[in-house]
What we know:
Blueprint: H1 16-23, H2 27-44, H3 55-77, H4 82-99, H5 101-105, H6 107-121, H7 164-167, H8 169-174, H9 177-181
Helix pairs in contact: 2-3, 2-6, 3-4, 4-6
Amino acid sequence: MTEEPTAPAPAVHHGGRWRRWRRGRPFTAGLLIALGGIEMLVTLRAPLGVLLHVGPQGLAAYLVPAVLVICGVLLVATPQQRVFYALLSLLLGLVSWLTSNLGGFLVGMLLALVGGALAFAWTPDKTTPARGPTAEPSAGEPDPSDETGPRHRAPEPGTEPVLPTQLDPARARAGTPEAASGDPR
């Protein structure tokens, strides 16, 4: 009696919904922006005697990182407004250089700037999930196997579109300087 080797069971991925949710929004960008704001808030509480915040500058030192944290959270919550939150994060990241201990000793500022750039560059995924071969199209979608429906294909090789100026030589001359001066050619 010989034992046949059994194949291991396929791995089950439990993060499907989380992964789809995370990829449907600029999650990494929002996380970096929020972490940059948190890092700036932490450095404001640093026990260094050199750091002094008095008056309006002290308020700005707390306000800029707090708004960055809010921008990071709102970026993940409402990705439709990503351009506004990205630009605001980039602007506040640069302002933090002056207001929040050199932008949280450069670390918080760099996190906010990289997160803002990622948020600005992020685009939503426009692809639709692939359907199985047995799935039927819904009522609003055309059947891909239907040959009578409209198709957007590339032109056949060797066929070129005919321009209106190729049909009538007088129209071709109408836009030239010779036609304006009255020189018949």
